[in-house]
Sequence to fold (396 residues):
Amino acid sequence: MKVNRLFAAFAMLGFGTACASGALKNEYGGFNIAGTDGVIEQSYGQARGWNIVYGQTNGRAAYCAAETGAGDTLWRIGYDGGQWQVAIPYAPSGASNDFQSMWEVDGVSRNISGVSTDAWTFAWLGLPELDRVMQGNQMIIEIGRASVDRSLSGTAAAVAKVRECVATKGVSYADPDGDSVAMQQPATGCPDDGPRLPGSNICQGRAANYLAAYPDQPPYAPDGQDCRWAVRQAELPGDRYLLYLAAQCGSKTAKLEFAGGNHRSDLMLVNSVYEMSDDSVAEIYAAHGAGANAILQRAAEWSEDPAEMAGCKLIRQSRDPLKYQVDNMGLAQSSDGPRASCGQRGYDGDSPNYWTVFGDEVWYIRPSIEMAEDIFMPSLTVLSKGFSGEYVASGN
Fold:
């Protein structure tokens, strides 16, 4: 999925949109990127000495922001889905006021506007001003009678990481092995100068950009825990890797592992944050060049009565994500409510299970095995080597 498409998708899903009981919006309908009541922040990552946070309210995205410094040097730069902002933890006393002042970068001054609250001043940036921040060395903002100066060191990397946070809606990579040496080695060529994932060698900070789909809500959080979606990577045979979104609650993150077999292989849930037992969340079969047509054959292998497969055909349920069902009538033709047909791996109106295709394999995806959602199944993305030798998301 291309980055442009990601930004458009998250705009439609409501980045910067709050429910009635969530955080209060600012005067242009967005969110101030600091000190906003009702916004819960979680760490997203780091870049060149900056800490990036993802803010959400009622499970909806509010903003992504990069923060650096402490005390008199603290400041933020971030984006709420509609406006880039610089946030300084200083403001004249009193109620919120419109902010109009002078802003200087490397000796060149411009007018700037925004808003001051009782604790923060927020300066609003257009794209030309954002470019100056990314390319500059020193910034001075006049706030009331104070001249506040800040170093712009690392701002280009910080802005790149904020953009990534916005595109992935706060989803970041979870290291399946803890503090492994491979994960800690710096690698050149990544936008945030961060490490690369072992095996696939893709930039850890960009892993979420490869995913096929993203959820609209965070995972279920039992007993008041702080739960979020995190990207994980699993090794597949044939020099391939699987990226997926797993629930992460505190220090525990759900995990999948590939289990090979002669006739079929399985994708096993081996670590559940909700204490679910180990089970197969996906069955994997070779297609032998038949593509989606192999689904009919594999579904028929699960039927105990060949007669029940009469009239069964392959039906594409959706294109994005790609889902297939095996059914003996069109999915919209039944007037008798939920029904099942074509055997154990055929269509079942009471089940979310479906078939899909990855390369020369057909997968039977089984979300139904989980009472709680450890894995966001539509996010499953297979990485294989492209013509240049770099890993790319396999088409399905």
Notes: The two ends are 12 Å apart (CA to CA). The helical segments are 3-13, 127-135, 155-168, 181-184, 294-301. The CA atoms of residues 24 and 37 lie 7 Å apart.
